[in-house]
Amino acid sequence: MKRVLITGAAGFLGSHLCDRFIKEGYYVTGMDNFITGDKKNLSHLEGNPNFEFIEHDVTEFVDIEGNLDYILHFASPASPIDYLKIPIQTLKVGSLGTHNLLGLAKAKKARILIASTSEVYGDPLVHPQTEDYYGNVNTIGPRGVYDEAKRFQESITMAYHRFHGLETRIVRIFNTYGPRMRLNDGRVIPAFMGQALRGEDLTIFGDGSQTRSFCYVDDQIEGIYRLLLSDYSLPVNIGNPNEITIKDFAEEIIKLTGTTQKVIYKDLPVNDPMQRQPDITLAKKLLDWEPKVGRSEGMKITFDFFKSLTEEELYKSEHKDFSGYINK
Ligand code: NAD
Ligand code: UDP
Fold first, then answer.
1. How many angstroms separate the CA atoms of 127 and 279, rounded?
2. What per-residue confidence (pLDDT) applies to 316?
3. Rounded average pLDDT over 200-223
4. pTM, to two decimals
5. Using a 6 Å CB cutoff, which residues line ligand 1?
6. Rounded (5°) CA angle 170-171-177
7. In whole angstroms, what is the distance from residue 303 CA to residue 256 CA?
8. How far apart are CA 234 and CA 77, in angstroms?
9. How far is Cα 112 from Cα 167, in angstroms, rounded to an integer?
10. Quick one: what percent of the chain has pLDDT higher than 70?
11. Three-state secondary-structure class, residue 298
């Protein structure tokens, strides 16, 4: 039985990856320090003989007994609000954490896939974004802690590949959503859905003309799975190219949720990318992959998930209004 280590296992994507690898017949070791994750995301795996969990901060030396075939490094705050609240931890998990996991991969002769992001393109001047675009990132801006940690992560991963001959994979993930996102993580989908469920107005940052392209989690996991098993070591974009302005997206959420609330406008966060759409030509060619779940279907499943949360979870919203925070 092959064994895979998944860091960030108690998070949104990490927990879905655990499920996928168990389903594919792997033994999964999940690792997390719960800084933005939730034990509940893994509760259904308790007692599963093909799963074990280790509570650990990956910025500290990572010690794993026995063999490892694959490592998927997904530990990192991922929401702009999270990485503004914990900037040093964000820098450390992308840099020191990645270094530890590359060292572990080398010691175990394991293949490692690291979770990079569309944020490496910053506020892009090329549209849609292709993998050969170098990006437009403000190193000292508030988002720099995440963007630069991820850029460093890519650099050190390529160095381990070139210098040590390590088997490495880099996925550049574009905005992904679905069940198990944290309702209070501040990202636009949980933010709008939480506001609709609590009967609050929907907060649009800026004038809402900025765009995003949202990928449903099952499509994202499929792309990551195929990339890991491919023989391609350069970065690959995985995301859904169906682009929409945030203003139009708010209207879609109002229709979906049936809320009678209105939209209100807040300040645009500093360095908020104005447009984002993945060019997935490479993933199509290399992995024979493209997204299958449309936005209306994916949003409905996601809203059903948020509707199933308890009152306590619904009101445990630490990020109701954070536009002031983000511009500090
Ligand atoms: P998430 O916050 O739900 O999950 C991240 C997990 O990592 C959490 O469980 C957290 O507790 C854990 N973690 C953070 N620092 C850690 C540390 N030092 N040691 C151990 N565990 C630690 O976020 P997510 O959306 O699931 O994102 C997962 C990964 O995918 C991240 O690396 C993120 O940068 C990347 N990504 C996600 C998206 C997206 O749209 N969801 C987009 C681009 C990139
Ligand atoms: N956004 C918004 N209202 C919110 C939360 C986010 O208008 O309550 C905007 C945000 O400014 C950005 C987009 O929605 O332009 C996506 O934000 P998110 O935090 O989901 O992710 P990002 O793609 O910026 O990392």
1. 8
2. 82
3. 98
4. 0.97
5. 7-8, 10-14, 32-37, 57-59, 74-78, 93, 97, 115, 117, 173, 175-176
6. 155
7. 8
8. 23
9. 6
10. 96
11. helix
112 lines ligand 2 (CB under 6 A): no
| Dihedral sign, Cα of residue 48, residue 304, residue 15, residue 281 | positive
Tokens representing 60 are: 């500290």
CA of 50 relative to ligand 2 center, distance in Å? 37
Pocket test for ligand 1, best of 35, 56, 213 (most atoms within 8 A of CB): 35
Q: Which among 146, 160, 177, 225 is annotated as catalytic? A: 146
How many angstroms does the Cα of residue 65 sit away from the middle of ligand 1?
24
Nearest residue (by CA) to ligand 2, atom 21, is 187
What is the tens place of the pLDDT at every residue in 178-209?
Answer: 999 999 899 999 999 999 999 999 999 999 99
- Does the annotation mark 146 as catalytic? yes
Q: Which domains can be identified in the chain, with CATH numbers? A: 3-182+214-241+275-293 (3.40.50.720)
Tell me how long the chain is: 328
What is the average pLDDT score of the chain? 96
User: Which tens digits make up the pLDDT trace of 104-132?
Assistant: 999 999 999 999 999 999 999 999 999 99
Q: How far is the CA of 100 from the centre of ligand 2 (A)?
A: 31
Atom of ligand 1 nearest to the CA of 34: 11
Contact yes or no for 34/10 (Cβ under 8 A): yes
The partner residues of 172 in beta bridges, in order of sequence, read 116, 237
**Ligand number nearest to the C-alpha of 120:** 1
User: Which ligand sits closest to the CA of 147?
Assistant: 1
Residues 58-90: tens digit of each pLDDT: 999 999 999 999 999 999 999 999 999 999 999
Buried b / exposed e over 230-263, threshold 16 CB at 10 Å, is eeebebbbbbbbeebbbbebbeebbebbebeeeb
